[in-house]
Design goal:
Rossmann fold, binds zinc ion, 256 residues
Length: 256
């Protein structure tokens, strides 16, 4: 097979063996939400698809038994709902979907599930699912929020403006790399971003930005994206190895 790590391209016999022997099953998580006047609704899910595949492919080349699921294209996007086109799952639905996927994999003998996440709004529910899936099904779940591992490289190579984080120079650079035809270069506008309260709260995005985006998308660079992606991919493969090492230490003697 050309891409032996794609679970969805296997037969049931192949998948049965692959899941039982796997080190990791990877579930990419994205969103379907507004990304300013110049990027598509699928921006996070396009990043999820390409960047998860790159990490899994590299890990596979280095000998890890790792298998990739298709991305979850919908996530938690209530905070973007005042912009047309955005589709959100409710937290209850999202948790159930995650639990059902995790439960199915556990019934087939999986031991470890990784959420490779590309949308900050999903994080609290991914964290909740990691707990309920472990409790109900015994499956260990890890959350790898891609941007956390990319942050230092983004800062070094893109020199982003202070408010970067959504439909900004980072995300625009990524879509320029993976799907350049989808970036409306002539629609790029610098948003007017308002400061929010420091205490955690819930705000709708139209309350803090006029375009729907943050940062300064005019600073985007495909070349910078290429460097950021290759360094971050390398670090994430290292992280997969560290997870296995940490487990050896945690669960030696068969506990857990
Ligand atoms: Zn995004």
């Amino acid at each position: 097979m050309e891409s032996p790590f794609l679970l969805g391209e296997m037969t049931w016999e192949e998948a049965g063996e692959a899941i039982r022997e796997s080190d990791f099953i990877v579930q990419p998580t994205g969103s379907f939400e507004q990304h300013g006047p110049h990027l598509p609704l699928l921006t996070d899910s396009i990043r999820a698809e390409h960047l998860s595949r790159m990490a899994v492919e590299e890990a596979w080349k280095q000998g890890l038994k790792i298998y990739l699921l298709p991305p979850l294209y919908y996530g938690i996007s209530e905070h973007h709902m005042r912009f047309p086109g955005t589709i959100t799952l409710s937290p209850e639905t999202y948790l159930k979907v995650l639990e059902d996927i995790g439960g199915s994999l556990a019934r087939h003998g999986a031991r470890r599930l990784v959420y490779m996440n590309f949308h900050g709004g999903n994080l609290p529910i991914l964290q909740a699912a990691a707990g309920t899936i472990r409790a109900k099904h015994g499956l260990r779940v890890y959350i790898v929020h891609w941007t956390t591992y990319a942050r230092k490289y983004i800062e070094e190579h893109l020199k982003p403006s202070k408010t970067w984080g959504h439909a900004c120079e980072h995300e625009t650079s990524m879509i320029m790399l993976f799907r350049p035809e989808l970036v409306r270069m002539d629609r790029i506008r610098r948003p007017n971003v308002k400061a929010r309260a420091k205490a955690p709260t819930f705000v709708y995005f139209d309350e803090i930005t006029d375009t729907g985006g943050l940062g300064d998308p005019a600073r985007s660079s495909r070349e910078a994206a290429e460097i950021i992606v290759s360094k971050t991919t390398e670090d994430i493969v290292k992280l997969f190895r560290e997870i296995l090492e940490a487990e050896e230490n945690l669960y030696k003697g068969g506990k857990g």
